[in-house]
Amino acid sequence: YSVLLALLLINRVSSQNVHVVNATLHKSVILPCSANRTQKAVFWLYNETIKVCDIIGGVMNLDEQNELYNNRVETFSSEFPKGNFSIKLNQLKMSDAGNYTCNFSEIPTPKRIQLNVT
User: Fold this and answer.
1) What pLDDT was estimated at residue 59?
2) Residue 17 — pLDDT band, cuts 50, 70, 90?
3) What is the mean pLDDT of residues 8-37?
4) Which of 67, 79, 98, 107 is the most exposed place for a label (fewest CB within 10 A)?
5) Which is it for strands 41-46 and 50-56: parallel, antiparallel or unpaired?
6) What does the alpha-carbon distance between residue 2 and residue 9 come to, in Å, rounded to a whole number?
7) How many angstroms separate the CA atoms of 114 and 99, rounded?
8) pLDDT above 80 (res 58)
């Protein structure tokens, strides 16, 4: 019984770390990501493996961006010094729904976003 309770508590805590964002097909959405300080590098991924965009040294880097996101991602560079690394995803497709992670170069725990598209 105590093992089951522990598993339920762990699941509850981990699910609280996911920020759910609901968006509309063909519209735009902001996926939030902030840190308590500026970062040397931030890496946005879709479903843990697909590169959405990198922000390196305060500049958006698209060198390794997956073609699914070509010309659809915007950043807010004036917000980088404040620790805000949110991105705007335009022209939403149903296939954009899923899990996004915002990984920091200097913070071990990523921000997790679940995007729902309807």
Assistant:
1) 94
2) confident
3) 80
4) 67
5) antiparallel
6) 11
7) 5
8) yes
**Cβ contacts of residue 90 below 8 Å, gap of 6+?**
28, 72, 73, 74
For the whole model, what pTM was predicted?
Answer: 0.84
Question: Which residue do the tokens 């922000």 mark?
Answer: 55
Q: Cα separation of 93 and 83, whole Å?
A: 28
**Cβ contact 58:39 at 8 Å:** no
Quote the CA–CA distance of 9 and 95 in Å, as a whole number. 31
Q: How confident is the model at residue 45, as a pLDDT?
A: 98
| Token pair belonging to 62 | 């698209």
Q: Which CATH class is domain 19-117?
A: mainly beta
Q: β-strands 18-23, 111-117: how paired?
A: parallel
62 Cβ contact list (under 8 Å, min separation 6): 53, 54, 73
Domains of the chain: which residue ranges?
Answer: 19-117
